[in-house]
């Protein structure tokens, strides 16, 4: 796991740009995710629930879709916009990593792949939201635990878990 | 498979590496379960083929990367019955 989070600036589904830098959040959660992966879909409600639960504690969430939308049209920018509209809005902006540079810089492997970054820009947790995509009662426990630790000024335990999901759909060179 | 009297060692895992392979095999995504060449949970007719992840729904509607075990069990049982009828 790299120590320092890479900066970026990406557009959300409303066309607004979001940066990692220059934000006053206590912590930022970057979630690489997408529209078509069943693992990402299975975990989505749990991740969105954490975003809602921690919003008033100074934690911001940035969901990033890095998939190659030429081979996977379900992950196109238009499809991202349509999904957010259809679902009545998300509790976090949904960003498009069209060049896949951000996903590569983070070493993201799967959708989902979760990174928790503290206010100094240090990566504090990386991996899966919880231990089982098929068990909603897990309630994103690893992610919640990592955020609770960062908010309390302690080290997350675990600080890293194996990301589980569909491989990121990289563009062919 | 054991519950249904099938030999788990008879399971074949086939890896597809190219979009051409996927199109030729009418492959709707990974994982796909087939018995005697037939998809046990056939995708919709407009489902594109390709090297992608396949989305299933559990019986309670939750999205899942694998079929609901009960659906898979039922589909396998139905496939066995069809084969028995065909062989009779």
Structural topology:
The complex is a heterodimer of chains A (173) and B (88).
Chain A: E1 9-11, E2 17-19, E3 27-32, H1 38-54, E4 59-65, H2 77-86, E5 94-96, H3 101-106, E6 110-111, E7 113-118, E8 123-127, H4 141-152, E9 166-167
Chain B: H1 19-24, E1 34-35, E2 38-39, E3 56-57, E4 63-64, H2 69-87
Antiparallel strand pairs in B: 1-2, 3-4
How would you summarize what this structure contains?
The complex is a heterodimer of chains A (173) and B (88). Chain A is α/β, with parallel strands linked by helices and 173 residues long.
Summarize the structure in words:
The complex is a heterodimer of chains A (173) and B (88). Chain A has helices at 38-54, 77-86, 101-106, 141-152; strands spanning 9-11, 17-19, 27-32, 59-65, 94-96, 110-111, 113-118, 123-127, 166-167. Chain A starts with 8 loop residues before the first strand and ends in a 6-residue tail after the last strand. Chain A contains 4 helices and 9 strands. Chain A is of the alpha/beta class and 173 residues long. In chain A, strands 5-4-3-7-8 form a 5-stranded mixed β-sheet. Chain B is of the alpha+beta class and 88 residues long. Chain B has 2 helices and 4 strands; from the N terminus they run αββββα. Chain B has helices at residues 19-24, 69-87, and strands at residues 34-35, 38-39, 56-57, 63-64. In chain B, the strands form 2 sheets. A two-stranded antiparallel ribbon of chain B has the order 1-2. The longest helix of chain B has 19 residues, at 69-87. The two termini of chain B are 22 Å apart. The model of chain B has no long low-confidence stretch (mean pLDDT 89). Classes of the chains: A alpha/beta (173), B alpha+beta (88).
């Amino acid at each position: 796991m790299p120590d320092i989070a890479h900066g970026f600036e990406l557009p959300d589904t409303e066309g607004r740009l979001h940066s990692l830098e220059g934000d006053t959040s206590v912590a930022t959660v970057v979630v690489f995710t997408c529209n078509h992966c069943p693992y990402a879909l299975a975990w989505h409600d749990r991740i969105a629930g954490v975003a809602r639960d921690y919003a008033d504690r100074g934690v911001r969430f940035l969901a990033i879709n890095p998939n190659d939308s030429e081979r996977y049209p379900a992950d196109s920018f238009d499809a991202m916009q349509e999904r957010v509209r259809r679902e009545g809005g998300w509790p976090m902006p949904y960003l498009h990593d069209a060049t896949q540079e951000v996903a590569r810089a983070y070493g993201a492997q799967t959708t989902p792949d979760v990174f928790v970054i503290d206010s100094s820009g240090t990566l504090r947790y990386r991996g899966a939201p919880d231990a089982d995509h098929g068990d909603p009662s897990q309630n994103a426990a690893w992610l919640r635990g990592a955020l609770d630790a960062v908010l309390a000024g302690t080290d997350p335990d675990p600080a890293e878990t194996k990301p589980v999901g569909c491989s990121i759909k990289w563009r062919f060179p | 498979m054991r519950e249904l009297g099938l030999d788990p060692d008879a399971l074949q895992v086939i890896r597809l590496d190219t979009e051409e392979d996927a199109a030729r095999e009418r492959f709707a995504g990974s994982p796909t379960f087939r018995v005697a060449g037939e998809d046990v949970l056939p995708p919709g007719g407009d489902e594109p083929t390709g090297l992608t992840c396949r989305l299933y729904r559990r019986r309670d509607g939750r999205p899942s990367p694998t079929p609901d075990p009960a659906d898979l069990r039922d589909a396998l049982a139905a496939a066995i019955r069809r084969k028995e009828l065909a062989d009779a």
